[in-house]
Amino acid sequence: MDKKTVLTGITTTGTPHIGNYLGAIKPAIEMSQGDSYNNFYFLADFHALIKCHDPERVAQSTREIAATWLALGLDTDKATFYRQTDIPEITELTWILTCMCSKGLMNRSHAYKASVDANRDAGKTDLDDGVTMGLFSYPILMAADILMFNADLIPVGKDQIQHIEMARDMAGRFNHTYKNLFTLPEAVVDEETQLIPGLDGRKMSKSYDNTIPLFCSADELYKLIKQIKTDTLEPGQPKDADNSTIFQLYSYFANEQESAAMRQQFENGIGWGDAKKELFEFLDAKLAEPRARYNELMNDLGAVEEVLLKGAEKAREVATPLMDQVRIASGIRPLTYVAEAKEEQKQKKEKSAEAIARAEEGRRRAILMQLKPLLDRVENAADKASEAAQLIAEKTAEVEGLKKKAKQKAQNELELLQEELAAYL
Ligand code: TRP
């Protein structure tokens, strides 16, 4: 069986945090490690422009995300790791899909509806206030990201499921309208990693401003961990590990024994300060090595750029031929292009020319049958040459004496006789 293609994109608007790492980066890298899948991972920098109009931030986030994935050990010889904007075919496909996507489908997009709802709640009369066409049609760009590589499985957060369904919709419409070129993708959602808590206990997310950057300095890491919200239980009082952000973060990085030991400490009434110190020391030990690699890469961005460009080359080996097919299928073609179907028609025509020739040959044989006695006359004559000349002279005289229609018939016969007797004449 062919390997399935796994694809996911990371919007380049922020600094990678522990939630991104546990929820997306780590599982994606793990999926690329065996030999089970083809993996396409990319920096969605065109997506960044939808929400973020700060060019420095977009550029810096792109550096940080690229360096993060490499620092964490993504093997770019196996996985294809690239920047969306290095693949012009994606933008090109976006337009073709835009023409395959009903506006009503986009009206139902959660991202767009959230903006409309916010405007309504704010009492604005223009419900589309602040909505760009980029935000409105963003699922189409995302569909192009996915369909361009005929991806089967798309690991995403819950909020993205709808977009994968929309991509299926567009793929289906294209396949039906033009040609079956696109695979229908499926979302893969890992429920467990959806729940990584941030400093305030809510889901760790840039939009809640409760994140711990994955590769901040050790000092910064400790400072942030100290900010994790706790209750007022004193040291010595037993604590509920399952309701503690500290314990949860710890256990996401720990093996079973380590988790069990920490749970025991919670039951034994570890103080919050000590728990935070343990979490810090544990995370710092886990992150020190990739953090050092990350810092190296951030100081050698030329090397990172090179990796991305190589990845783009690999990605385009897939995108370019598929995009060629998409263009041809939708009628965007060189003027001289002869479609396969036309080629077939041509062949059919050529075939029918053959059939006509065959019929012609049949007709010729039928006439010759009738003329057989005349031909025999020549064959049986002592002087075949003069008999042949004699016969042709007679037939010529007959042709001359006939009216138009009959003349044509006799003329045909004459010509056939001349052909058949050519050897003697
Ligand atoms: N929109 C996705 C997000 O915000 C990022 C993304 C862009 C993506 N293109 C993609 C994810 C294609 C999966 C596949 O998380």
SSE map:
Layout: E1 4-11, H1 18-31, E2 37-44, H2 45-51, H3 55-71, E3 80-83, H4 88-98, H5 103-107, H6 110-121, H7 133-136, H8 138-147, E4 153-155, H9 161-177, E5 186-188, H10 218-226, H11 245-253, H12 256-267, H13 272-298, H14 301-330, H15 340-380, H16 384-401, H17 404-420
Parallel strand pairs: 1-2, 2-3, 4-5
Bound molecules: tryptophan (TRP).
Tryptophan is lined by residues 7-9, 11, 44, 47, 142, 145-146, 154, 156, 160.
What does this structure look like?
The chain has 425 residues and is mainly alpha-helical. It folds into three domains: 1-101 and 137-195 and 300-336, 3-Layer(aba) Sandwich (Rossmann fold); 215-298, Tyrosyl-Transfer RNA Synthetase (Orthogonal Bundle); 340-420, no CATH class. The protein has 17 helices and five strands. The chain has helices spanning 18-31, 45-51, 55-71, 88-98, 103-107, 110-121, 133-136, 138-147, 161-177, 218-226, 245-253, 256-267, 272-298, 301-330, 340-380, 384-401, 404-420; strands at 4-11, 37-44, 80-83, 153-155, 186-188. The strands form two sheets. It has a three-stranded parallel β-sheet with strand order 1-2-3. Helix 1 links the parallel strand 1 and strand 2. The chain is elongated and about 135 Å long. 29% of the residues are buried. The structure holds tryptophan.
